[in-house]
């Protein structure tokens, strides 16, 4: 009977394939495991407290917000099937999608959305009143509409026309308390496990409300550094490796990997702590800006695959970026020496740059910076630390002199610029300018797009005049993808969307 069954099945399959039926059935089923190489140890899986971009690119697959970005940078409805903003820009109303389940089997309801947004805004009874998402501090209330239980009404204490992009924040089940260790969302993949220094494993969400993933599992494999990742790529144990440098990508066989690249909308910054002497002197910061050759740094660290920056925003932001500031600092070491002398440091000084060791491009940038700054008498001491230490000491505690890192954003100009407000928790360079603070406050209150563009350009100009820090490049995002795969998209933000990836 078993042999007859196999023969019959084979015959049916052969006929079906001839009719083009079987291929459709196979393509709609999940298959296989895809391994993604990463060099950053996850810090948390909580969507409301996450800071590191490396954590965000993993949890993008687990959580979903009311809105969600696509690979082109468009902001689309997600868990909210539609939304409305009042003319006064102080009331946002979202209509919640039905027939959506969390990974624990619970149905998504308006109560879950209210709980999540209140938690992110610091409005829960047990919270200390401090918003977990800084921009949500303007939220006065989050309520279910009295007229329609499928609608959630968010009321602000002041108009904010820039808040929409922040509603991409993950929605979690009501009263769920273990998001940091056992994330539970509505996304295309479920959290399976996390092994420290080894991997994070996700599995396909078979109950996903949208287009279901075409692969069964995703393993985010933690590599010690980029070179370790390259060895694994060469051995075929990693299928996808984001943020690879071009020189390493060029070492891979074209038969084994397709090399994808795109503008990253990242800002690599030589961050200068504005509260630490002698970096608290604007002339010293200006001297550093003139001392370096950005194109040489891009050539050395990215094999030329980057765009030189002199401001806090990437040209990938389009009209919000001010092209008139391009090339503000051309390399002029004589001018740099003169500026140092004016600042009282004619003989130079020693400066420590603290760099996360897992990001080789930043380590290499620090090495090149050291070589170029030595020409004007600045002796750069490179201190490599692990990622967790960098996050704690440099980003959170601001206990550093200088650092090299890439800043990411939610592909929204306000997300780029708000970090430079004096009281922003993200202002790790300790930049402070009262005029900039006032302009940042004006942006959400300004309905006219043309006027808002003017405000952004004015802020960028002031920050450039202040020499807030040393902005270097927007490095191209280079991603080797195994030739056996298709459907991977390079996003203009720090995202690894595995829902569209499939085996050929």
Which terms summarize this structure?
504 residues, Dipeptide-binding Protein, domain 1, six-stranded mixed beta sheet, 28% helix, disordered N terminus
Summed up, the domain count is 4
CATH architecture classification of the largest domain = Roll
Q: Work out the strand percent.
A: 15-25%
Task: Tell me the structural class.
Answer: alpha+beta
Helix content: 25-40%
* CATH T-level fold name of the largest domain: Dipeptide-binding Protein, domain 3
Structure in words:
This protein is an alpha+beta fold and 504 residues long. Helices cover 28% and strands 21% of the residues. The protein contains 14 helices and 20 strands. Strands 13-17-12-16-14-15 form a six-stranded mixed sheet. Helix 10 links the parallel strand 14 and strand 15. Helix 7 runs antiparallel to helix 9 and helix 8 packs antiparallel against helix 10. It starts with a helix and ends with a strand. The N terminus is likely disordered.
Write a brief structural summary.
With 504 residues, the protein is α+β, with helices and mostly antiparallel strands. The chain is built from 14 helices and 20 strands. It has four domains: 1-30, no CATH class; 33-38 and 187-262 and 477-503, 3-Layer(aba) Sandwich (D-Maltodextrin-Binding Protein, domain 2); 63-168, Dipeptide-binding Protein, Domain 1 (Dipeptide-binding Protein, domain 1); 267-475, Dipeptide-binding Protein, domain 3 (Roll).
